[in-house]
Write the structure tokens for this entry.
Amino acid sequence: MTSSNTSYLVPASRVSGTVCINGSKSLAHRYIILACLLNKRVELHNVPESEDVLSTVNAVAAMGYTVHQNWKSHELVVRGNERAPIRAATVFVGESGTTARLICALCASVPGEWKLTGAGRLPQRPMQPLFHALNSMGCRVQSQPSHPVQSDVLAIIHSPQSLSVDDIIEIDVTQSSQFHSALLLLAATEPALRIVPNGAAASKPYTQLTHTVLAHFGFRIEQSSNVQCVKRDCNSRASSVYIEPDFSSVAYWLCAAALTQGTVSIPNITVESVQADSAVLNILKPFVTVQHRDGVLVCSGNGITHGIHADCTNFPDLVPTLAVIAVFAQGSSTFMGVEHLQHKESNRIQAIRDMVHVLGGCSDFDGNVLTIEPVQDRTDRRADVATYGDHRIAMAAAVAGLHRGNVYVQQPQCVQKSYPEFWDHLEQLTSTG
């Protein structure tokens, strides 16, 4: 394998071995922000040192909170009970959409003026439903138009001394479930806040992750008809949390095992995980043999015998890697509920289609369903995959390279956003393959 700042060559290789995956970044974001909201000191273990999680750490630090970082042991100590008396700051959230949405809960709860800024495509990604909800609670949000021109500013949030939560707050969740999650986290400090989520939620299981984090700190969700509120169930003194491995990262190696007919072992896995991307276990059932022994997930690939047909509304992050499976399947594949992928770190639909084309397959997208026809003429010709700086496209392309070889992944460093150890783990799993 050879790499540079511009490309990474992935040759054909069978995966074999054990790889330890760091914690779910989706859970890490929520634990960090909720600890600050509740003014609690919380120790977090198995925290991923990804750019997105660092964005959340830096964002709460900008607002005056203290976070002690020990990345050698992947531990954070969030001192939500220690905050400098800051009343105004620029809060940079990088390219992390989750940070941008969830930090709004903290901005609303701390009186002051908070200027949210971001990078990449983030200023163009949906935020308006959440800003509208904050305005309804007495915040004054000066936001950019839907498609700002050359601006890194998402919004300036002026938060009052106390929020007005007398009225029911409705939130449109059709573009992102993170809007709903932000309000649920805020409701832990505002027990009178009543929330009505409207529309078919995008990536709904991620809201369940928020429920899980709230429950860890002694809260429960009460629902009457379609109105939700957050109530304290007990005075939890939870101060230490182990974050379970990120199933989005696990999925790459399960798909690689399926394609290369290799065997991968991953310790500390909970197969009953509430993470949305644990759905990969069911999707890959026809192509892998999975055993779970003493907390270790052992996955042995059997090859790809047919296409995949899946509604991906709840687990959109799996689609790029499942698309790679589809390229080398025997028969067409269809992925439904993927329209929101157009508004990720890249236009992920177009990026997937470009990757499929370079790998030798064909695709079609009708606005909701992505159809992929597999490679007809097997070849080892050079395939240069443009990632558009999108971490999930880069890692999916690498999985394709393990199967067919001679794949050059452009901008390989973009994996730092979610899985900085990815290339090291690939080397580790292929060194004896």
The longest strand covers residues 75-83. Residues 247-260 form the longest helix (14 residues). The CA atoms of residues 373 and 409 lie 22 Å apart. The chain has two domains: 2-21+245-430, 25-242.
